[in-house]
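Retro notes, structure queue

What went well: the backlog is down to a handful. What didn't: a couple of records were mislabeled last round, so from now on we paste the full input next to the output in the thread. Example, using NAD(P)-binding domain-containing protein from Xanthoceras sorbifolium:
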Amino acid sequence: MAVFRNRRLLSTNSNRKDNYLKAEEAEIPDVKLPSAEKLLVLGGNGFVGTHICREALERGLTVSSLSRSGRPSLQDSWADNVVWHQGDLLSPDSMKHALTGVNSVISCVGGFGSNSHMYKINGTANINAVRAAVEQGVKRFVYISAADFGLINYILRGYYAGKRATEKELTTKLPYGGVILRPGFIHGTRRVGQMKLPLSIIGAPLEMILQHAKLLTQIPLIGSLFIPPVGVTSVAKVAVTAATDSAFPPGIVDVYSILQHSQRKST
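Corresponding output:
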């Protein structure tokens, strides 16, 4: 009888201990700890760049940005959590300080103008960034490029020549860690001075329709007009995933793949 009581006592104590441990586990809050992953966004104060910075912060990353103007005039609270560097990619030495301790880089740098200017901004500046990042030991580099648009490629030949030159440099220097996103028209709310342009009014409906009409892009001469737009939040989500997930495959990611990846749950 005494043995039974002892066993019962031991069982009771064990149950109490298990219940205590379960209660302790239940009380642990689900808190996202700061990540040791450090991301540098080139052109982080622009339309696409600001969305990338916000996406990265939401995932708990340490985020910094480098651009010619430095911190933007945004009053949003999230901007206080980004380290804003000022520098010029056409002067590679001016970006070395921003690369200290960085694990991955996303470049949104690009622009329009004369063909020589477009090549310089979309090509030379980004090529400098790729080389500087590799020299500093960065293992993953994501470049926001652009989809081919047929005749438009010729009209904006400096723009596209610069983009493709950067792509070539990236795949050469980082064959296993370079990712190239090629979206078409990127829609969202774009700020121009104090104005907000709701580009999604046109972009979102077209995206819904054209993402299921891939065959139309094969039509000679006009096929590129049917490339679906993509939301800026989708581009940001895929860019951050590509920069931080070593399992994300290197190489070119077209607009259809961007849409597919954006629908997957972020980790």
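Agreed that this is the format going forward. Reviewer comment attached to the example: The chain has a mean pLDDT of 84.
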